[in-house]
């Protein structure tokens, strides 16, 4: 009813327009008596004008339809993707220029050609299964076939759907042909490169294992003569009364030099290992590592009064062995540089900063000149001027190497006679100070929780 009302309104409007045009052309008014012959002439003239107006509207509609059809045809013909219409018997009913180019034949020769005639024989069953599925389900289907081009194989992705044919009695499949040869070549290349990378990684792992074994061997071989020298000096100094004062001093220098050299060898090995050792990260209890190291340090000088502040539950996803090297170097430095303090304090902890967990080792030792903050991580750099506090100059360089391997940052803050603090992070999700799932460590003896913990 609504559509009829709209048509009536359009008809009345057309009628009014026709009468207006007739009046403008000098025709008679519509108020003439219906029985008057002139009324019939009037009606005929109005209908003639109506037909002319309708024809004009039809011509405009036809012109617009022709324009749209030509636009569609141009889009179809010159699309970069191949389009084909395939009948249920597998013959090509229609194709655009891109499809003809993909199939390697002139477009006018494609009509009625069997689509399988262009495929590699291995792809024929794949295409027939695609057609059967598309015609049976009426849903979008896809398959990938190969075309035997000259000097290479073209990989073609076919995506299509079955629609009623123009006669309405059968179905036909309208499909897009997409050349995926470059993608397949790239995937093949990536697979080859991945294989090469895996082989090189295995070879590198083997080299690292050999290098680590060699490092241990060299370390032990270098330490053996030092052990002999140190033992010999112990024997020679057993009867200290027979030695002069100068001889005893020389013996002490030799023994301490042997110890220093042994430590130097171990430190150099740790530095090299931190740079090339395997980086396997696991959830690591940093609090437990720090407490173990603190216990070892206390055993070296039991008489010293040192308070370690190590809260429990500090956990990070990192390499446990390399992180232990970091904490050993930092805590040993703090132990060494607080030696002149009657009441030494060494703290290990963490805090959150800009969605990042920052760990630190802080002490109240002799500190350092703030201008040296950027230099202290360089190999060979020494903060202490006295021989008693001189180190290998490699410890903080090792710390920097390990932290950088974890993708983190390390920096220092301090002042002369104001203590020092070394900060570090484990970037890319390595750090996590939540301690979830980790039991609290007991706080006993010299280990004190910081205020507010």
Show the helix and strand layout.
Elements: H1 2-24, H2 37-78, E1 82-86, E2 92-95, H3 97-103, H4 124-137, E3 141-149, E4 152-164, E5 171-179, H5 181-236, H6 245-276, E6 282-285, H7 286-300, E7 306-309, E8 315-318, H8 320-337, E9 344-352, E10 357-363, H9 395-405, E11 410-414, E12 420-425
Q: How would you describe this protein?
A:
With 453 residues, the protein is α+β, with helices and mostly antiparallel strands. It has 4 domains: 2-77, no CATH class; 80-179, PAS domain (Beta-Lactamase, 2-Layer Sandwich), CATH 3.30.450.20; 185-276; 279-453, Histidine kinase-like ATPase, C-terminal domain (Heat Shock Protein 90, 2-Layer Sandwich). It is 48% helix and 17% strand. It is built from 9 helices and 12 strands. The protein has helices spanning 2-24, 37-78, 97-103, 124-137, 181-236, 245-276, 286-300, 320-337, 395-405; strands at 82-86, 92-95, 141-149, 152-164, 171-179, 282-285, 306-309, 315-318, 344-352, 357-363, 410-414, 420-425. The strands form 3 sheets. Strands 2-1-5-4-3 form a 5-stranded antiparallel β-sheet. A 5-stranded mixed β-sheet has the order 7-9-10-12-11. A hairpin with a 4-residue loop joins strand 9 and strand 10. Helix 5 (181-236) packs antiparallel against helix 6 (245-276), helix 6 runs parallel beside helix 9 (395-405) and helix 7 (286-300) crosses helix 8 (320-337). The longest helix has 56 residues, at 181-236. It is elongated, with a radius of gyration of 45 Å. Residues 429-453 have low confidence and may be disordered.
């Amino acid at each position: 009813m609504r559509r009829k009302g709209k048509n009536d309104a359009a008809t009345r409007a057309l009628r009014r327009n026709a009468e207006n045009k007739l009046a403008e052309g000098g025709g008679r008014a519509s108020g003439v008596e219906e029985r008057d012959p002139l009324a019939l002439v009037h009606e005929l003239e109005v209908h003639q004008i109506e037909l002319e107006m309708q024809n004009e509207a039809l011509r405009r509609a036809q012109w617009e339809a022709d324009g749209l059809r030509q636009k569609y045809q141009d889009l179809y013909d010159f699309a970069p993707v191949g389009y084909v219409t395939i009948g249920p018997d597998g013959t090509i009913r229609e194709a655009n220029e891109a499809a003809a180019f993909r199939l390697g034949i002139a477009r006018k020769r494609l009509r009625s050609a069997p689509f399988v005639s262009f495929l590699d024989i291995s792809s024929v069953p794949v295409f027939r299964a695609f057609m059967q599925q598309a015609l049976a389900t009426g849903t979008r289907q896809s398959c990938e076939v190969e075309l035997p081009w000259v000097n290479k194989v073209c990989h073609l992705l076919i995506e299509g759907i079955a629609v009623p044919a123009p006669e309405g009695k059968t179905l036909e499949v309208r499909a897009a042909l997409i050349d995926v040869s470059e993608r397949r070549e790239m995937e093949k290349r990536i697979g080859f490169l991945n294989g090469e990378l895996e082989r090189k990684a295995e070879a590198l792992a083997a080299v690292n294992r050999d290098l680590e074994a060699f490092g241990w061997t060299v370390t032990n071989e270098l330490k053996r003569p030092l052990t002999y020298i140190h033992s010999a000096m112990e024997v020679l100094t057993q009867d200290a009364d027979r030695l002069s004062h100068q001889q005893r001093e020389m013996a002490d220098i030799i023994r301490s030099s042997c110890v220093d050299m042994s430590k130097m060898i171990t430190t150099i090995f740790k530095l090299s290992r931190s740079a090339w050792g395997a980086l396997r990260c696991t959830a690591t209890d940093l609090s437990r590592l720090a407490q173990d190291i603190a216990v070892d340090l206390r055993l070296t000088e039991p008489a010293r009064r040192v308070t370690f502040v190590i809260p429990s539950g500090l956990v990070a996803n990192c390499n446990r062995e390399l992180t232990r090297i970091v904490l050993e170097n930092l805590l040993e430095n703090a132990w060494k540089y607080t030696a002149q303090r009657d009441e030494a304090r060494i703290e290990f902890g963490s805090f959150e900063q800009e969605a990042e967990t920052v760990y630190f080792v802080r002490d109240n030792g002799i500190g350092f000149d703030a201008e040296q903050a950027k230099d202290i991580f360089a190999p060979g750099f020494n903060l202490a001027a006295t021989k008693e506090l001189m180190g290998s100059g490699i410890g903080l360089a090792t710390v920097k190497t390990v932290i950088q391997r974890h993708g983190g940052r390390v920096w220092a803050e301090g002042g002369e006679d104001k203590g020092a603090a070394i900060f570090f992070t484990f970037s890319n999700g390595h750090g996590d100070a939540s301690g979830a799932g980790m039991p609290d460590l007991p706080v006993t003896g010299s280990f004190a929780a910081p205020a507010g913990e």
